[in-house]
Amino acid sequence: MPEISEQQYSQLEPWFKLKATEFNQLGYENIQADDIYRYFKEFSWKHAVPKHYYQQIRDIMKTTVNHYFDFVALEAQVYKVSSLDEINFDDFL
């Protein structure tokens, strides 16, 4: 899995925050910048981080709530719990 360096993260953090703010304004107040970062690190850029800064920003800005929830749904499917009572569904909304 390619890693996002500290320098890359510090450059991209305002964009992650901007996207989280956009999602919050759409009514998804539980989505934070760290969640957006995790989406890119573990899902969207899992195999390759775009080489150029402008490509990284483009990817962040074109991400929709549906893209993020695809990741959350996939994560929920592989999350190991013995019953649905153990899943905190508030984190997904």
UniProtKB/TrEMBL annotation:
InterPro entries: Post-transcriptional_regulator. This is Post-transcriptional regulator. It holds the Pfam family Post_transc_reg. The lineage of its organism: Bacteria, Bacillati, Bacillota, Bacilli, Lactobacillales.
